[in-house]
Specification:
The protein is α/β, with parallel strands linked by helices and 277 residues long. Helix content is 41%, strand content 22%. The chain is built from 11 helices and 11 strands. The strands form 4 sheets. Strands 9-8-10-7-11 form a 5-stranded parallel sheet, with helices on both faces. A two-stranded antiparallel sheet has the order 1-2. The chain has a two-stranded antiparallel sheet with strand order 3-4. The longest helix has 14 residues, at 67-80.
Length: 277
């Protein structure tokens, strides 16, 4: 018997190979082994023991690495790099060894996580296309807590839907908020046209704020969303949200008490999923 090095495959950084042992025919016949059987090795001191794999071990080996783990790893790494990565970059960052990805799994990723592969020159870039838009209200939060929540959720872009992006709360006025988010790798966009108009906003503020008052406010804002400029602004949100994980910001903690829920309903009609953080 002889140990041989075989099957070297070279990449830019590494060389991949395996070792092969040739067993004498009489040994194989004496053991009753057939060509193609699955073998399991066990290390013992300076020796290696070989035996046929059990049905359970064969099943387990075929399941690894599990597709769901692969899917989640790809999704998480691409959320952290919204501009996209090549397969080689993904492989290095996730410490994968396969030179090329499993084509069957790639096709599944295109359906499961909306993976897009885009050619830039001669390079193939992997990136995500999103079908969900998130919403959040900063009421009751400090800026540090707010930013942490966005980062923990891998948010890449914030769209401010306040008409006037000013706040008495430290850190949430437009200029400061934009700088804080930029320093944390999150893009900031203010779309004032999606804010609730001053007249209906002040009417609610000067009321007793009963359920009926809120219902009237929402009815007025729904009418407002029929304006061409508002519809165009919702279309702008769609365009911005396809390639970055996006969250819409307003003040109220409870989305059901905020006009952003009406914007969210309009987006749902256009086929988007909505999640309120």
């Amino acid at each position: 018997m002889k140990l041989q090095k075989q099957g070297a495959v070279k990449s830019a950084k590494k060389e991949y190979y395996k070792y092969v042992i040739t067993l004498p025919k009489d040994r194989v016949e004496k053991l009753g082994w057939k060509e193609g059987i699955e073998l399991v090795d066990e290390l013992k001191d300076n020796s290696i023991l070989l035996r046929p794999a059990t049905t359970k071990e064969i099943s387990k080996s075929k399941e690894e690495p599990i597709y769901s783990e692969f899917r989640n790893s790809i999704k998480n790494i691409l959320e952290r790099y919204p501009d996209g990565l090549t397969w080689s970059q993904i492989r290095d960052k996730l410490n994968y060894h396969q030179i090329a990805p499993n084509n069957k799994w790639v096709r599944k990723l295109e359906k499961d996580i909306l993976l897009k592969r885009i050619k830039r020159g001669s390079t193939m870039i992997w990136r995500l296309e999103y079908d969900t838009i998130y919403t959040i209200g900063y009421e009751g939060m400090e800026i540090e807590q707010f930013v942490k929540k966005l980062k923990d959720s891998n948010v890449q872009q914030l769209i401010d839907v306040r008409e006037i992006a000013l706040s008495r709360k430290n850190g949430f006025s437009k200029g400061i908020l934009k700088d804080v988010l930029r320093n944390n790798g999150i893009r900031y966009t203010h779309i004032a046209k999606l804010g609730s108009p001053k007249e209906i906003r002040h009417e609610l503020k000067n009321s007793l704020m009963t359920k009926e008052d809120y219902n009237k406010f929402f009815e007025e804002y729904k009418k407002h969303t029929n304006d061409v400029e508002v519809q165009d602004s919702i279309t702008e949100v769609e365009g911005l949200s396809k390639m970055k994980k996006t969250i819409m910001l307003c003040f109220e903690k409870d989305h059901s008490n905020c006009h952003r829920s009406i914007i969210a309903d309009e987006l749902k009609k256009r086929g988007w999923k909505i999640s309120h953080l």
